[in-house]
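Our consortium's second objective concerns turning raw sequence data into structural hypotheses that experimental partners can test. To show how far this objective has progressed, the report includes one record in full. It was chosen at random from the queue rather than selected for favorable results. The single chain below, 124 residues long, was entered without modification.
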Amino acid sequence: MQLNHTIVWCRDNHAAARFAAEILGLPAPTSFGPFQVVDVANGVSLDYHSVDREVESQHYAFLISEEEFDEIFGRIVERGLDHWADPGLSRAGQINHNDGGRGVYFKDPDGHLLEVLTRPYGSG
């Protein structure tokens, strides 16, 4: 069994999908019905769908390489985005070194908590 896609609820699917693709260094989103689709490397897509209501924050974590971390973290810093070393958002402006890797949390325009990490939890 494999995860194929997940719907990411947002206020503006074009802006939210473009943000994710740009920050994560992924290809530009494509359109499919009411969705803006961001494809990730393992065949899963994030299907952004606009809604006319408040969006409840969700968490999306991406396992990436050390090189990708440098690139993504550089874009986070370049854009002046708030970032944290932990999901409780108590270690502002820091990254973590869990399991011998690196990780960081940051929010997208709708308040979804995105995480990039270089080592799966429990692997160290």
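The partners drew two points from this record. Residues 66-78 form the longest helix (13 residues). The first strand starts at residue 5 and ends at 10. Both points have been shared with the crystallography group to help prioritize constructs.
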